[in-house]
Structures are given as C-alpha cells and as structure tokens.
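Team,

Forwarding the record for the chain on the shared tracking sheet. I've put the sequence and predicted structure together so nobody has to dig through attachments.
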Amino acid sequence: QFQLVESGGGLVQPGGSLRLSCAASGFTLDYYNIGWFRQAPGKEREGVSCISRSDGSTVYADSVKGRFTISRDNVKNTVYLQMNSLKPEDTAVYYCAAVFKRFVRCIISPGAYNYWGQGTQVTVSS
C-alpha cells in the first residue's frame, strides 16, 4: 500500500528545534521528488521545502531559508525536515508529499504532488 507517514511534530518554545520525518511504505522514495508543506488554521496550504530525485537539489520558501533543512535517507526510505530557530508563525500542520519525477527538479507548489501524508502538528509557543 502506497503510504506516507509524518512524525516528529509537537509543542516547542520559540527558538527551539524539531525534526520531522516522512516515512514511505509501499514504494521507494528514491524515485520521487518530495516536498514539505504546511497549513495554518484559516490559511491556504503553502510550500516549505522540497528535494529533487534527479540531483538532490533543494528548494526553500523564503520564510524558512537558513532555518530549515530538508534531507533524505534512501536506505531508511525517509525524508527529514530539520527545523531550527522556530517562530510562532511556523505553527501549522506539516505535510509531506511525493510525485514521481525522474529528471525534473522539484518545486514547492502543492498542485505538483499527488501523494500526501496525513500531517503532523507543529506548535511553537511559550
């Protein structure tokens, strides 16, 4: 069964860190572009970061550049999002998503992905 499962969310104080994981089952992540997205209450889903299958290149939203890092471990079939220097405005449900792309670099547009996880809540608050 084709499935993406996020984990690692939680409550953290401003300035703290979290590492989100996106584990795949039923398929090999190595053949897919993977993106992280987030959605805060009352807001549209927005792209956070992505990593390309073809060359491992990465893309970050301006709001997270220098604070978040995306990486993939093909042995563990998992993609990670390391989030540092967290701010209250980072509070949202975070989703990972996948799309089969062999030679096309990733983009952080939700419409470009067709497989989604169920999400994990991240709350940044003192």
